[in-house]
Amino acid sequence: MEPTIHTVFEPVTCTWQYIVADPATREAIIIDPVLDYNKETGAIGTSSADKLMQLVDNNEYTITRILETHAHADHLTASRWLQHELSRQQKQQPLVCIGRDITQVQKTMGTIYGIPESQMHGAFDHMLSDGERFHVGNIEAEVVHLPGHTPDHVGYIVGSNIFTGDSMFHPDLGTARCDFPGNFKLYTGHDYPPKDRKVPDGETPGPVPYTTVELQSRKNKHVKVGTQMDQFVKMRTERDASLSEPKLLRQSMHVNLRGGRLPADAVEGFKIDQRPSNIPTVA
Asked: How many CB atoms lie within 10 A of CB 221?
């Protein structure tokens, strides 16, 4: 069985958000939702998450899980706001889930940013194991551990689709895992469309939600069939050394390591001037 997939692009952080549903039962999951944040003004908003809620309402979905592929460094997660809103309108509260190696990221990044362990312990409703299976209605889904971008990174296989988060981008952007069947669609966590991206006639070179294993194996600019390990390691090492810190790294870590909750007290470098009242805080 194949799911219905809704793709929602958030243009500020170039993030793909997904709703994946069983068309028969109307049960669905949300993957990698974004909470709007303006670093300069400190304003937090929910316009991106509102679009997800509108899709849920329009299609009469019941959301059972809100899934993170990893602890994002470039945006704040809207998981807890969505959980609060969805719990008000459906019979069950969706679980906020992430890979179980999030504890390693919390320990490392929590130390760097001074987040108390007590504010990260139990931050997620469920931590997922490699190979763990669950259902979206009548459709079975599987968790696959995809470490590399971050230690906690996981992907989600639903039908012939794999939601890869930041472990795999489009061929003209680059990297990571490529050992699934060629026909499988890889739904990426981001897209930063190059101006010279080649597209079929009649299509626009805007953001694209998925690629395929077959295309990646032939054209991925970082690693494709024939790429040698020493070549890849050298390229990534040199390229990563030139990259600057993600713009919202500090802010993202303070929210995402707390499982989508805001810090109750002031945090250096994290300005919060406006916030929706139904996003929980933790102290």
From this structure: 14
